[in-house]
Structures are given as C-alpha cells and as structure tokens.
Amino acid sequence: MTASRFPRRVYEVGDEPDPRFTLANERTFLAWIRTALALIAAGVALEAIAVPVQPELRRIAAAVLLLLGLVVPVLAWFTWGAVERALRQGAPLPGSKVALPVASGTVVATALLIVGALTH
Amino acid sequence: MTGGALFDPGLQPERTALAWRRTALTLGAGSIVSVRLFAPEPAAWSIGVGVAGLMLAAMTWLLGERRARRTRDALLGSGGRLPGGGIILYLAIFVACAAAAALLEMAVVAHSATSWSRRPRSDSAHMATAGVTRAGGHRQPCRS
Prior knowledge:
The structure holds 2 protein chains of 2 kinds. Chain A is mainly α. Chain A has helices spanning 8-11, 19-48, 55-89, 99-118. Chain A has one domain. Chain B has helices spanning 12-38, 44-76, 86-117, 126-143. Mean pLDDT of chain B is 78; it is low at 117-144. Chain B contains 4 helices and no strands. Chain B has one domain (12-143). Chain B is mostly helical. The longest helix of chain B is centred in the middle third of the chain and has 33 residues, at 44-76. The interface between A and B is large, with 50 and 47 residues.
C-alpha cells in the first residue's frame, strides 16, 4: 500500500468501497457547502439591506443565519468522514449531523423575521 | 472497463466535477456580492477582501479540477485509489472562516451602530438610519 490518505481516521479501516458511493458522498458534502454559502449570503443580505423588519430582530436573524453558515461546513466535514468510514466498513450509514441544525436554525430565523416584520 | 469506456452510465466522475465547479462559482459570486453589500462604495479593505475571495474561489476550482482528473485516472486508468479528504477539509474550513468573518464584520458594525444610536434621531429617519449607520461604521475606521 502507498502512503495513507488523509484523514487516517477514515482510511485506516475497511476496504475501498464502490467508487460511486464515495463520489456521491463527496457531492453531498459539496451540496452542504453550497447550502452554507447560501445561508451566509442570506445573513449578509439581511444585515446589509434595509428590509422593513424591526432592526433588533433582523440583526438576530442575520446572526442566526451566519452562525449556521459557520456550523454547517464543520458538521458536513464530520458527516462526510463518518459516511466514508461506514462505506469502507460496509456498515449502516450514519445519519446526517447537518440536517437538524439547518432545519431548526432556518425556522428560528424565519420566525424572527415574521415577528419583526409584523411588529415593525 | 475495456477500450476506455466510461466508468458507468451515471457519469459519476463528471457529476462530481460539475459539483465542484458549481461550488467554486458560488464561492466567487458569493464573495463579490457580500463585499458589495457590506461596502457599497469601494474601499481598500473591501477590494482586498473581494480579491482574496475570488482567488480562493479560483483555487477551489483548480483543486476541484485536479481532484476530478485524479478520480478519472483512478477509475479508468491505472486502477489507483480515489483522492483522500484533504481538499474536503480545506473547503469546510474556508467556508466556516468566511461565515466567521461575516459575523465579525457584523459585530463591529453593531458596536459602531450602538455608539451612533445614542445620538438623538427622529423616528421618521428610522429606516434610512439603519443604512447610514452601517456605512458610517465601515468608512470611519478605514479612511481616518
């Protein structure tokens, strides 16, 4: 075998999986990265554009979106590693660590914006 | 896998290469738009941030292309292994840092906006003030 690939935590176990699964795992990671970029863009836009929403709530909503943009790539990285590891071991795939934070965070941000728009 | 036939009819390597390109393009467009939103008028810091964002997007594109080439080689050619996760980690860290930078930017703006809000202002100017304080908060520290 040639030099071990990074991260070793993933590649030290199991055998090479079907390449299609590995590539699909990679695309899922990239899709989460683009989701994070969209969340960041939304947060920046909320912060920079004077939308008719109560300023404090708008600011908090923007911060929630930006925080999601910060957390999502990190969780996507760990999910990618866990899935790749499971693929190599032929184990059941782990659940995504990203979905719940994204879902709950966007719900909170949207609720803040609705309240902020109604009370403005 | 005879005669250089494609690895499978789903064009997996191509789809993955396209996903990398989409991501790199989103990165480039996102950094430009974000800089423009935060700094409506060009300033040294905003141009620097914009150029840095574009360069990192270009780097992501090139790394994605290299990764795609290695993937094709592994699947069609010598039967080597698929590339590891180094670039994956780089991309995750880069995007997380972009979010952190935007949060930091926001904190700085909020700080300067707080000091501004102590000044008396009329309610009718409420909407406009939001934009004005932000713009002022940026330019003052950079140009003075």
